[in-house]
Records
---
Amino acid sequence: NAGVTQTPKFQVLKTGQSMTLQCAQDMNHEYMSWYRQDPGMGLRLIHYSVGAGITDQGEVPNGYNVSRSTTEDFPLRLLSAAPSQTSVYFCASRDGATNEKLFFGSGTQLSVL
Amino acid sequence: QQQVKQSPQSLIVQKGGISIINCAYENTAFDYFPWYQQFPGKGPALLIAIRPDVSEKKEGRFTISFNKSAKQFSLHIMDSQPGDSATYFCAVSGGYQKVTFGIGTKLQVIP
């Protein structure tokens, strides 16, 4: 039971490049989400999903896309990377409405030059 | 609009002392109030959580105090240890509502 797995762990991009951060969970959780963590800003919600085919925006969605075609996977796409997207990204999942404990991945450290 | 306000942003406590971190929220629809602990290079992990039907919950050295009328809750770490040095986040949520976090408190426990 691996929990929440994020890849890659580190990534360096040039401004304007696109990439996808991968997130997979093997706990059959309905709810999955992406956060970014910046110094002095805490954890800010980018996008979240309450089940396959359902996604919604969080606090800071601009510049990011998500899709949820399966229960297990919730990739985060950066369409045209900007230096302001330099951050540590965390994927998190939880069982559903009755079990609100969030399980986090180990994070992806992204630098945009 | 910041849904949850956390303070202080940093805290230094002597070993054996009490660490106290506070959070205040706005939306009375929230009914789940967790605290997460994060060590450097790791993802946050649930430490302790409370629902608004009780005013206090204790798990070992960690206690949440909850004041529903003031819309505030706090984390108390008794007998703080150097191993407790980490960043602590409060959060609010309810049912399928998205989980919103505070800005975090970096705790350092010095010997």
Note: The interface with chain A takes residues 6, 9, 32, 34, 36, 41-46, 49, 89, 91, 93, 95-96, 98-104 of chain B (CB under 8 Å).
---
Amino acid sequence: ILNVEQSPQSLHVQEGDSTNFTCSFPSSNFYALHWYRWETAKSPEALFVMTLNGDEKKKGRISATLNTKEGYSYLYIKGSQPEDSATYLCAFGGGSYIPTFGRGTSLIVHP
Amino acid sequence: NAGVTQTPKFQVLKTGQSMTLQCAQDMNHNSMYWYRQDPGMGLRLIYYSASEGTTDKGEVPNGYNVSRLNKREFSLRLESAAPSQTSVYFCASSEAGTSKTQYFGPGTRLLVL
């Protein structure tokens, strides 16, 4: 079982704060790194897939960076809003056929 | 375009009962997956099917069986339900390959008494 770690496990911020969290993964045999957003009582939805070292992706106020050599990806949220409250999952795509998910970072944005 | 559908949405079973969770996708994806979600554990892979006619165990396969009925459908069976199988079950599908995005169904909430 591959070691995909997400930190912190949970995060509480105030509306308007910018925040970031980390996904750590094996630095060898890298194919792709996925980020998903998972709202309570819904199903996970894809945010980004990154395949190249140095990739940066952006969707609105959310962006992500990738460092495959050291095995980490950061997800940033600028000016957090209550609707950003969700669990953010990363999934590492390595040499095996299917990606391995981390346990997620739970973000709660307080109005 | 329905995407990934799952039935039932919610089920209550008694210990020892059996049931089958159904999943279907209309995106012509080769690969399909079954996950369970438990508090603090994220998503754990139960079984997956890389393509029609093949199935493989994931991280937590004990107590489950699967059938890839055709390209569209992938079912999960609990032969003798146990309280430890109380969970939310998600089906997902994707194109083949580890870099492909997975699309998830709405989930089935299962309570085993």
Note: The CA atoms of residues 2 and 20 of chain A lie 23 Å apart.
